[in-house]
Amino acid sequence: MTLLTVSNICAETQAKPILKNFNISINEGETHVIMGPNGSGKSTLTKILAGHPDYKVISGELLFINENLQNLSPEDRAKKGLFLAFQSPIEIPGLTCFDFFHLIYNENLSFHGKESVSPLEFLPIIKSIFAKVGSNDDLLERNFNEGFSGGEKKRSEIIQMLLLKPKLAILDEIDSGLDLDTLKKICNVLRHQKKTAFLIITHNPKMVELMNPDFVHVFFNGKIQKTGGKKLVYELDQKGYKHFDTL
Fold first, then answer.
1. What is the pLDDT of residue 67?
2. Which segments of the chain are extended strands (E)?
3. Rounded to the nearest 5 degrees, what angle is found at the Cα of 38, between the Cα atoms of 92 and 220?
4. Which end of the chain is more exposed for a tag (fewer CB within 10 A), N or C?
5. Is the whole model's pTM more than 0.90, yes or no?
6. Which contacts qualify for 137-144: CB closer than 8 Å, 24 or more apart?
7. Considering Cα of 71, then 64, then 111, then 171, what sign does the dihedral take?
8. Which residues does the chain have with pLDDT short of 70?
9. pLDDT for the residue numbered 10
């Protein structure tokens, strides 16, 4: 089943064109990696898919499970199974991680017509997920992301994904700030989410190696310049992005 279809999207922010006839199609269970230079529009793509109000679609079509994404609020996109792990997660003072995770878990259950769970019932669920990603249980009582290291914030994003079990997870440089051992642990967790498709944005060839994606896309000048498998990463490493600009 096709989850996401992006057809000839042109988009801008502050009247500056970013995406230029961008196309991609992602099927259920697939893993796609997008690699491109800084400032090429990769994060813009994630924000457009998530429904950020500062980014405007000028033309083209965005379909998520055959539904027009542009008709849905960011909240509704999330409820229907589209998840975005932020490149720079925000901090929320005054709200503990436990309360935040409990809230989004119950909201997701409610949307799917299931009964909410009590804090006592939720505790073993969240502790099990913390163990999977290598997070310390002490973080549960701290304010959400407040004072967290870069790696702790990224693990927090993965924890949210595991709680919500989205159909499509967009991971924007989720590897940033992670040491190699943590990256291996996170990628192992991600590879076991067979019912979730992934769109991963990264600069890190190690992330590609560990995730073993179905497709690698070279992206710059607002669109995908070339698509291939893992071998494309090695070609990119040897020849750089300028090589693909002539293709």
1. 93
2. 2-13, 16-27, 31-35, 56-64, 67-68, 82-85, 92-96, 143-144, 168-172, 197-201, 215-220, 223-228
3. 125
4. C
5. yes
6. 139/97, 140/96, 140/97, 140/98, 140/101, 141/96, 141/97, 141/98, 142/96, 142/97, 143/91, 143/92, 143/93, 143/94, 143/95, 143/96, 143/97, 144/91, 144/92, 144/95, 144/96, 144/97, 144/100
7. negative
8. 245-247
9. 92
Cβ atoms of 40 and 219 within 8 Å: the answer is yes
* 220 touches 20 (CB < 8 A): no
Q: Can you tell me the distance from the alpha carbon of 5 to that of 108, in angstroms, rounded to the nearest whole number?
A: 24
**Domains along the chain with CATH numbers:** 2-244 (3.40.50.300)
Express each pLDDT in 159-175 by its tens digit: 999 999 999 999 998 88
Residues pairing with 9 in the sheet? 22
Chain segment 62-91, per-residue pLDDT in tens: 999 989 999 999 999 999 999 999 878 888
Cα separation, 129 vs 124, whole angstroms: 9
Six-digit token string for 80 = 């229907």
- Is-contact 104 164, C-beta < 8 A? yes
| 8-to-25, 53, 61, 223, 226 alpha-carbon distances in Å | 11, 20, 7, 9, 16
Structure confidence at residue 146 (pLDDT):
92
Token representation of residue 18: 């970013």
